[in-house]
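Lecture notes, unit on protein representations.

Consider one protein chain, 317 amino acids long.
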Amino acid sequence: VTEAWVDGLDILAITDHYEGQRGVKNFFRVTAPYNEDNQPTKYLSAKDAGTVKVDFNRIHREAEKQLEKSGYPMLLIKGCEMARNKEKLGHYNALFVKDIEAVFDKDPYQCIRNARAQGALIMHNHPGWRRTSVEQTETEHAFYNAGLIDGVEVMNGSSFYPLTIDWAKQHNLFVSSNTDIHDGTAETYRINGVRRNMTLIFAKDQSVESLREAVVAHRTLAYSCGTLAGDEQLLRDLFLASVKVSIVAEASNGVKTLLLTNMSSVDYILRLGNGNPVVLSPFSSRTAKTNKEGVLRFEVENCWHSSQEQLMIEVKL
């Protein structure tokens, strides 16, 4: 919670593994409710303590206590990760859940239905993680076609899955980018000089209701390692809100010299004409010339709106 605030987040969802993870078993000496072989194992394994029921809602309660203690004006979203066999079933986040314990079932289909019955949104996580292909498996394809998936993780840490942008278009999903962090953000991100992954959510205000409305309406963009991805119009709106364009000179043949000023904290990589790409750094400016009609067209190479296409911008002043 404290690291998220230091890193500048307005919203945090802690979606810990609930099943099939060595780290959970070793650290808490607990076996998950359903492991990758779908065998139910719902109790603490301790030689001397007998069997003790594990409360998987506690992590969210502890985070709420820390947030209240700190006084940070940050929003916490309750969630969990359903992480069974990655090669066949895939991993999924349930967001906006009410009771993590009530989500899980031996049948993975029923897990997702249980979460949705609580009003949760289901996100397909890191579809290319430890696989040879990002292509959907038979089970994942069935989940998508059954309308059980609400969003897809386009970026996970330093991994980027461009094909998932096409899935989002095809199935009308929100896009996201997440740390999937198992260490401190200082160790994983800041010490390496990069900003942590973020999902940009275009909500009316910082409330659960507005946040959920924006996510359901797919007003989200994914950000990781200087790259943005998602809906073309959202990318365009963000870029045009970030970069101010003004005329600094005009030649007799109609060619104008424009000044592009980046007022955001994002590097934009621009390809102007047939030249090499140039970086429009945060809070900096550079000039560019229009054609004789006074039009400047360029590609923003670090803004992706499909698996094959980057954002095209046309400016005419």
